[in-house]
Automatic annotation (TrEMBL):
InterPro entries: C-N_Hydrolase_sf (IPR036526). Gene3D superfamilies: Carbon-nitrogen hydrolase. This is Reverse transcriptase. One of its GO terms (molecular function) is RNA-directed DNA polymerase activity. It comes from the Bacteria. Keywords: Nucleotidyltransferase, RNA-directed DNA polymerase, Transferase.
Length: 993
């Protein structure tokens, strides 16, 4: 048996995405490899299937390594440090440096680095092929206690070879590991038990492991019970020998490559017998391991009162695997006969033991849980653009300060992780502003951020803690054409490097200082930083520049030191060519798929490159080729671009429903399902949303929400006349506060204590390019969004007035989102006059049947009419009996006329009417056909000086039960009107009087 070219292609596909999301990817190296992808993979396949194994030790195959900063350690502190507060980080650094030098000439801060792999693409492909063909068998031997870095699998437990990326997403298993530990503590404490909780992690885990145990039969066969075939054993040997050869080329001479994803599988296996011992011998209330982070919770039945007592008891239950380490570093050592030269040490300074009971124990656990909830809420929320730019600098100081943040994990004893999380949260917000807003709309906020970044981050020691975010800031500044500030940032980074060179000792983790070549460490680090900055600039460089912007760019480049620029070409033409190349390979700042989404959804993207490189079809299995061919047919291409076949950020299911021309047609089900299988490896477990019936169709969406009570949130939201005119004239929105107001409103819905099922916003409420991001945030909380989007301009003088509905469903076996778009069929009289007077525009709807489409959303049937369409008596008549509720987004000043329409519609359609009008005019309401007049307005709102939401519940089950009787019973609703016929699919068992 030999590995096929398709095996190589699918291994590369996973490897590309894994590498793209590591801490030190080289997008240029990926693009170079992909330029001759088939030839490169054929050559590697020939080597793997050949008889020789010496090639795995060749330096060109292995690649190299870089040094990445971790922290700067200050050796001494002055007694005045707690009394004197210095606001400027640069001044504080100089003060520390000078004081240490005064105390002793050789006494200097220590800049600590971590050796990180920069493997060749060939080695990444080999390691991913190993995970797909051999490593998954090792991974399958792990118990459920191992949460982190688990390979992606199908529902039946088999490896998912079609999925993008090798591993399950990071966040979900991490939260499960953490939350289940806390839950076990809560439960035990609520039962008035005394418990002990231990948290620990391994020091320099990857650097201290010897991977030879993965070839040791005592481990593979004896411990795991695995029997590898001949080809599998050969592939396993090639991979492990390559890992050892790479380590031999580094100054450490040992360890696993940090940054090579497959290293995580080996690291997990090294601790498998620790997992088994904890589960079988200790039998705790909870044990979980996230890679090298361990959490153990057990009853304190032995009455442990000191760490020594506890550890001695655990040593006795570990089958000799845990012992007290007798080396220089105090701690607990884990060992096994097959681990050879590996050194797995849980250092004392990282081990924490908590003795918990009673009220004090519950208070501590609840405090941690509250911090977790608060941080999770911040990440779930939409970015909130401050009203004043000065607030951006304040947020930066808060995010980078040492004190003031609580821990969201038992293991955290300092706030470094929290500071990183705070800064990452602020940076995420800024990146969202860049996607959603025109650069001029938030220029002052950006400039304030850059100034704060220069002062508080690009200075020692702060830079070492936040260096991983530098390239994201570089990409942001480049994409927004802030070229002057970009040059300042690059110069400041150069100053930081020089400051390390002149002011600090250098230390590499797991490397004795006496053997260290400081100049080599700094040379490799500075070279890596320059290369990363250059790639970040290329990936985000604008595709179009005005003559004045070209002059500004040239001036910014001229201000840089020639040594900083190095051999990189920074002329505009070269950067644009480089950017287009990365974009074509889905390696640029903006994903390639954006080029194929409707222009109203994506802001500021230039035209699609006409010469996209094609994928060699010999590298893909038939099922992938079929799915991709469906997609290129939808987007108007003849051949499959390599960036879509090997994507880093593929289409989502919701986006496929947008690009597919007839997404809900029954004959499109197979195509969309095949496209998702090809793109993401997701198999269909039930039906995707589909249109049922040739005339007056129903859009059917599967949903697991069985509740007959639906909670509706009405958004009292104001769109100014100026925003409306700007939308008509295709000008920049003059309401610069609109974005902040909208995000605040959506965050209010997300943070509601009661679960909202639907949020409805008025007609023409939001720009189309804001809709998807808002909908995704709401969907994460199980909220479906129905909102009018601004006019969409088509052709010469044509517009569309649409309402979009983002509806949750679970056709893939997990929560997903579908976008349904419905056109307004006729303009209101005043609306038509204004559009013609201002811009000569006319309505150009895409479909004439949509207002009669009934949406069956998990058993809840509703329809949408846009504002003046409510006055169409034919629409109302044809919907009667088919719907539980009618949603009516409006921008309507004639509230008196519509008040009568809403009140009569609730009775003659005999359904709930959900009307959402612009806040300027109000009268948004949920109207019900109740018998008692005082109950009919479930919600009715008008006025206010700020945007807000109000929620109301509608009882769908009760309405259906009432309507299912042959003769209407006595309440709670008004009798059904004459001629009422109930759709069979809505019928339920009526109640007995």
């Amino acid at each position: 048996m030999s590995w096929t070219l398709v095996d190589m292609g699918m291994a590369y596909r996973k490897a590309k995405l894994d590498l793209y999301y590591t801490t030190s990817p080289s997008v240029t190296a990926i693009a170079d490899y992909e330029a001759n992808l088939e030839a490169n993979l054929r050559a590697l396949r020939k080597r793997i299937n050949g008889k020789s194994a010496d090639w795995v030790k060749e330096p060109d195959f292995l690649g190299g390594y870089v040094y990445l900063p971790t922290t700067v350690k200050v050796v001494t502190r002055s007694e005045d440090d707690d009394e004197l507060m210095v606001s400027a980080p640069a001044d504080l650094w100089r003060q520390i440096r000078d004081r240490m030098a005064t105390e002793a000439p050789t006494n200097r801060p220590t800049a600590e680095f971590r050796l990180t792999a920069k493997c060749s693409i060939d080695l990444h492909v080999l390691s991913t092929l190993w995970m797909m063909k051999v490593g998954h068998k090792f991974d399958d031997s792990l118990t459920v206690s191992a949460y982190g870095n688990r390979l992606r699998r199908q529902a039946n437990g088999g490896l998912n070879e079609l999925s993008l990326g090798s591993f399950s997403p990071y966040m979900a298993p991490f939260r499960t590991w953490r939350d289940e530990g806390l839950s076990s503590m809560r439960k035990a404490l609520s039962e008035d038990k005394r418990i002990v909780a231990i948290t620990a992690d391994v020091s320099s885990f990857y650097h201290e492991l010897d991977p030879r145990f993965m070839q040791d039969s005592a481990f593979v066969s004896g411990v795991l019970g695995l029997e590898l075939t001949g080809p599998e054993e050969k592939l396993n040997g090639l991979f492990i020998e390559a890992i050892r050869a790479w380590a031999a080329l580094t100054p450490l001479r040992r360890g696993l490559p940090v940054g090579l994803p497959a290293s995580a599988v080996i690291a997990n296996m090294a601790l498998i017998e620790l997992d088994r011992a904890m589960e079988r011998e200790v039998v705790p209330l909870y044990y979980g391991r996230y890679v090298d982070d361990i959490m153990l919770v057990m009853e304190n039945g032995k009455g442990f009162s000191t760490p020594t007592e506890l550890w001695n008891w655990l040593f006795s239950r570990s089958n000799g695997r845990l012992t007290r380490d007798s080396g220089e570093t105090e701690g607990v050592r884990y060992s096994a006969p097959y681990l050879g030269d590996s050194r797995i040490l849980f250092a004392n300074n990282k081990n924490k033991i908590f003795l918990l009971h009673g009220v004090s124990g519950r208070v501590m656990v609840e405090s941690i849980a509250r911090q977790i909830h608060q941080r999770a809420s911040e990440w779930r929320s939409l970015p909130n653009l401050p009203e004043h730019a000065t607030a951006v600098a304040t947020e930066m100081v808060t995010a980078t300060q040492i004190d003031g943040e609580g821990a969201d994990n038992l293991r955290k004893t300092d706030s470094l992780t929290m500071r990183r999380a705070g800064f990452a949260l602020q940076l995420r917000d800024l990146e969202a502003y860049e996607r959603d807003l025109e650069p001029e709309a938030w220029r002052e906020h950006r400039l304030a951020f850059y100034e704060a970044f220069l002062e508080h981050v690009l200075v020692l020691p702060n830079f070492f803690e936040l260096a991983a975010y530098l390239t994201r800031v570089i990409r942001l500044a480049t994409a927004c054409k802030d070229f002057e500030k970009l040059a300042e940032i690059v110069l400041a980074v150069t100053d930081v490097i020089e400051s390390v060179r002149s002011d600090c000792h250098v230390h590499v983790k797991s490397k004795p200082t006496r053997e260290l070549q400081t100049s080599m460490v700094l040379r490799k680090w500075s070279g890596y930083v320059r290369e990363s900055i250059y790639e970040a600039v290329v990936s985000a460089f604008p595709s179009l520049l005005s003559p004045s912007e070209v002059i500004r760019w040239d001036a910014a480049v001229a201000s840089l030191d020639p040594l900083t620029v190095g051999h990189f070409r920074l002329d505009v033409d070269a950067l644009m060519v480089g950017h287009d190349r990365l974009f074509a390979h889905d390696l640029a700042y903006s994903p390639l798929r954006f080029a194929f989404l409707p222009p109203e959804i994506v802001r500021g993207l230039a035209s699609v490159p006409t010469d996209l490189p094609q994928v060699p079809i010999s590298l893909m299995p038939l099922v992938v080729r079929r799915g991709l061919k469906s997609i290129i047919g939808w987007i108007g291409l003849q051949m499959i671009p390599i960036g879509l076949a090997f994507p880093t950020r593929p289409f989502s299911l919701a986006e496929l429903f947008i690009v597919a021309p007839r997404p809900f047609a029954l004959d499109s089900q197979k195509e969309i399902s095949g496209a998702m299988l090809a793109l993401r490896g997701f198999s269909l477990v039930s039906r995707l949303p589909y249109l049922d019936g040739p005339t007056n169709p129903s859009l059917v969406l599967q949903s697991q929400d069985p509740s007959s009570m639906k909670r509706i949130a009405l958004g009292s939201w104001k769109t100014t006349d100026g925003s409306w005119v700007a939308s008509v004239m295709r000008h920049v929105d003059p309401d610069q506060d609109r974005y902040r107001r909208l995000n605040t409103l959506i965050n209010e819905a997300i943070s509601q204590s009661g679960e909202i099922d639907y949020l409805i916003l008025p007609e023409l409420a939001i720009p189309a390019n804001w809709f998807m991001r808002i909908a995704q945030k709401l969907q994460a909380k199980g909220i479906s969004l129905i909102a009018g989007v601004e006019y969409l301009h088509y052709g010469d003088g044509g517009i569309r007035n649409q309402v979009w509905a983002a509806l949750g469903h679970d056709g893939l076996g997990f929560p997903s989102m579908t976008i349904y778009r419905q056109d307004k069929q006729r303009l209101a009289l005043h609306e038509e006059q204004q559009l013609h007077r201002l811009a000569g525009l006319t309505l150009d709807p895409t479909s004439i049947e949509q207002p009669l489409t009934v949406i069956d959303h998990g058993g809840f049937s509703f329809a949408i009419l846009v504002c003046s369409e409510l006055t169409n008596i034919d629409y109302r008549a044809q919907l009667r009996g088919r719907i539980d509720a009618l949603f009516v987004p409006e921008w309507n000043r004639d509230t008196t006329t519509f008040e009568a329409l809403i009140e009569s519609a609730a009775l003659d359609i005999h359904a709930y009417i959900v009307q959402c009008n612009d806040r300027e005019y109000g009268d948004s309401r949920i109207r019900a056909p109740y018998r008692d007049a005082w109950k009919r307005d479930i919600v009715k709102i008008k006025g206010g000086v700020r945007d807000y939401i109000v929620t109301g519940d509608i009882d769908v089950g009760s309405l259906r039960q009432f309507q299912s009787s042959y003769r209407s019973p006595d309440g709670p609703f008004k009798p059904v009107p004459d001629g009422f016929f109930m759709a069979p699919g809505r019928r339920s068992l009526p109640a007995r009087d």
